[in-house]
Design a protein that fits this description.
Bound molecules: adenosine-5'-triphosphate, 6-O-phosphono-beta-D-fructofuranose, magnesium ion
Radius of gyration: 25 Å
Number of helices: 14
Main location: cytoplasm
Family: Belongs to the phosphofructokinase type A (PFKA) family. PPi-dependent PFK group II subfamily. Atypical ATP-dependent clade 'X' sub-subfamily.
Region (Disordered): 1-33
CATH class of the domain at 105-264 and 418-463: Alpha Beta
Mean pLDDT: 90
CATH architecture of the domain at 105-264 and 418-463: 3-Layer(aba) Sandwich
Cofactor: Mg(2+)
Domain Phosphofructokinase: 125-435
Length: 490
């Protein structure tokens, strides 16, 4: 049933101005902050650029859903927020607060169902697309979007865009009609049934296709590049004043998306990496002066390598893109491995694919090489390291036995179905996205912040990166586990 558009009601629901929750604590006896301003990261809403009179508002059908019993507190309001930061140093004095002041609480809208929705289920046409590289859990997210839209909201027109962004305007691949029966077992499958691709981002053709197909909800699943594309799509949709909700669902096996706790599939990848590290360990241990070398994914961030190292405990040295390293001389990798081989007879080395790229010789053509999306194509740091290790040993220990076993499980760690934790995560992510779009939010990303699901402006996520901080406790923890050098030349 469509409700009347009460201006006050919507204004209230859009009142994000939690603003200054109070003055900073100026009690000089106590350095602690009793309360501080909240900087709410407002997520765009259809009512920001569309006339309220032209929009209809409906009661959430969950009210009538026989599996739900919406009770007090079931629906969230715009004043339910998630704080970005939960760890504070209260010892600092607090004279003034600015937006960038770390003591200001950055907050996001809490994800979840809203009492009022902006799409009539029978007139909702949802499109789902997957872009970029594979990641465990892609099929689970698609499945849950389909099932969630169908079962929670009664949406019956759901379409899968095939093979990434280019699928929107492809003349050979029509949108796939999706329903719960069709996607039933998809969460048990690796990859993406919808297929994915890099490149092919043509803004105008994509938005034209959204209009031609009368899609009014677009669910975009992908990594950093995909999110940047999604921002452009959202901007163009706003420019054309289309009543279309756009949501990004961040996917990256590398865990390089900022703001959110972690990306789905990451934990599965770390778990899969253990098999490679175990094999490398067995091979190294069973050889005389054996080195097990494992290359793991991580184009610009070393999160997989770092987490795999911490959870394995068999790793002697972890090399990541965020940390420069060197091979020769005092404090270098060779000296460290020499000592490890003397002490233990073997060593295990984990290297992220983006590490040491500046040290690998490359031709002019290789310097220029990019994939269809414009990402730099990396050289194989594992093969290069293996060659360098062998050269070093032959030079410094002629005639002594030595073995390097190089294991490259690159695609094995991402081309698998999500584990239980990631499957659960994907489900909550998909449902959060649906609730947000149904409630009229647009140009946003749904994701966990400090364990709670939140709505984050798409643009903020597209800009944020998540590098390993080699100055923080987690990296220090890696170094205490491995006792590896800091590779800082004295
Ligand atoms: N800056 C950008 N603006 C618009 N579209 C972009 C941009 N960067 C990438 N894209 C498009 O987004 C899609 C996916 O990009 P990309 O191949 O870089 O993967 P990704 O989303 O970063 O995922 P991942 O790197 O985790 O595999 C491609 O279709 C690409 O053309
Ligand atoms: O599928 P492709 O193009 O080989 O991509 C591989 C890249 O994708 C990722 O898995 C995600 O960006 C990177 O770790 C890796 O460099
Ligand atoms: Mg990327």
């Amino acid at each position: 049933m469509a409700l009347s558009n009460s201006k006050r009601e919507v204004e209230e629901s859009n009142n994000n101005n939690l603003g200054t929750a109070g003055e900073p604590n100026r009690n000089t006896n106590s350095p602690s902050i009793s309360f501080s301003p909240v900087n709410l990261k407002k997520v765009p809403h259809l009512t920001d650029y569309l006339q309220l009179e032209n929009l209809k508002i409906y009661t959430n059908p969950l009210d009538q859903n026989r599996f739900f019993h919406p009770s007090h507190g079931f629906y969230f309001s715009p004043s339910d927020v998630i704080l970005r930061q939960i760890v504070y140093d209260l010892s600092s004095a607090c004279e003034a607060f600015s937006d960038s002041d770390p003591r200001v609480h950055v907050a996001y809208h809490r994800a979840g169902p809203r009492k009022q929705i902006f799409f009539e289920p029978k007139n909702t046409r949802a499109a789902i697309v997957t872009c970029g590289g594979l990641c465990p859990g892609l099929n689970t997210v698609i499945r849950e979007l389909v099932v969630g839209l169908w079962e929670l909201y009664g949406v019956r027109q759901i379409f899968g865009i095939q093979a990434g962004y280019r699928g929107f305007y492809s003349t050979t691949r029509n949108p796939l009609v999706l329903n719960p029966k069709m996607v039933r077992g998809w969460h048990k499958l690796g990859g993406t049934v919808l297929e994915t691709s890099r490149g092919g981002f043509d803004l105008h053709q994509i938005v034209d296709a959204i209009q031609t197909n009368a899609f009014n909800q677009v669910y975009i699943i992908g990594g950093d590049g995909t999110m940047r594309g999604a921002v452009e799509i959202f901007d163009e949709i706003q420019r054309r004043k289309l009543n279309v909700g756009v949501v990004g669902i961040p996917k990256t096996v590398d865990n390089d998306v900022g703001i959110i706790d972690r990306s789905f599939g990451f934990q599965t990848a770390v778990e899969m990496a253990q098999q490679a590290i175990n094999a490398a360990h067995v091979e190294a241990e069973s050889a005389v002066n054996g080195i097990g070398l494992v290359k793991l994914m991580g184009r610009s961030t070393g999160h997989i390598a770092l987490h795999a190292t911490l959870s394995s405990r068999d790793v002697d040295c972890c090399l990541i893109p965020e940390m420069e390293f060197y091979l020769e001389g005092k404090g270098g990798l060779f000296e460290f491995l020499d000592n490890r081989l003397k002490e233990n007879g073997h060593a295990v080395l984990v290297v992220a694919e983006g590490a040491g790229q500046n040290m690998i010789p490359r031709t002019a053509a290789q310097t220029e090489e990019r994939d269809e999306s414009g990402n730099l194509v990396f050289l194989d740091v594992g093969s290069w390291l293996k060659t360098e290790l062998k050269k070093w040993w032959a030079r410094d220990h002629p005639g002594e036995l030595f073995t390097v076993k190089y294991i490259d499980p690159t695609y094995m760690i991402r081309a698998v179905p999500a584990n239980a934790t990631d499957n659960l995560y994907c489900t909550l992510l998909a449902h959060s996205a649906i609730h947000g779009v149904m409630a009229g939010y647009t140009g946003f990303v749904s994701g966990p912040i400090n364990g709670n699901y939140a709505y984050i402006p798409l643009e903020d996520v597209a800009q944020a990166t998540n590098a390993v901080n080699t100055k923080d406790h987690k990296w220090a923890w890696v170094r205490t586990v491995t006792n590896q050098p800091d590779f800082v030349k004295s």
